[in-house]
Amino acid sequence: MSVEVVTVRDGRGHTHARVFVDGAEVPAVLYDIATPGAGWTPEAWSAQKVSGASAAAVAAAHAMYPPQTLPVTVARGA
Question: For residue 64, which of 48, 53, 75 has the smallest C-alpha distance?
């Protein structure tokens, strides 16, 4: 199986992703967990990251957080 991910970040800071499996495009969900930058407070960035991890599949949430650091709401799948 071949998996290719194409990501494009536009000038406004948005990131777009397309995923291809064996050459065929498949639906993808992008969870942006970039480090906080201008305009982000640490609290707002953390809340955004937890929100994304809560909506993600367990394996994707583990990619965002090491399993031992998953917030309780994410660990429960809430």
Answer: 53
Position 10 confidence tier, pLDDT thresholds 50, 70, 90: confident
Q: Which residue has the tokens 């957080």?
A: 65
Question: Of 40, 46, 78, 76, which Cα lies nearest the Cα of 64?
Answer: 46
Kindly report the pTM of this predicted structure.
0.57
Residues 74 and 53: beta-carbon distance below 8 Å? yes
CB 42 within 8 A of CB 59: no
Alpha helices of the chain — where are they, by DSSP H?
42-55, 58-64, 72-75
- Yes or no: say if 49 and 42 are a contact pair by the CB < 8 Å rule: no
